[in-house]
Amino acid sequence: MDAQGTSLHALSCKIGRNPAYLQQWIQRGTPKRLPEKERLHLAMALNIDERLLGARDPWSPLA
Fold it and tell me: Measured between alpha carbons, how far is 60 from 14 in angstroms, rounded to an integer?
């Protein structure tokens, strides 16, 4: 996230959630797991392998 110059606020909005959503997920553990759709969109927004976010059948960026 830092390497891409973005913030939790911006990423939360990008995946269609309120601005504090990802901050709450990281700091408070709410929700315990990101729903599949949000995890996928977050991986795509960050251009990272979805397994880094806990996916079992992941989306992965093209190398």
Answer: 18
Spatial distance between the Cα atoms of 49 and 58, rounded to a whole number of angstroms:
7
Residue among 15, 62, 13 nearest 34 (CA): 15
Q: Tokens representing 3? A: 């390497």
Say if residue 24's pLDDT is above 80: yes
Q: Which 3-state string (H, E, C) describes 1-44?
A: CCCCCCCHHHHHHHCCCCCCHHHHHHHHCCCCCCCHHHHHHHHH
pTM of the model: 0.77
Between CA 40 and CA 53 the distance in angstroms is 9
Number of residues that this document lists for the chain: 63
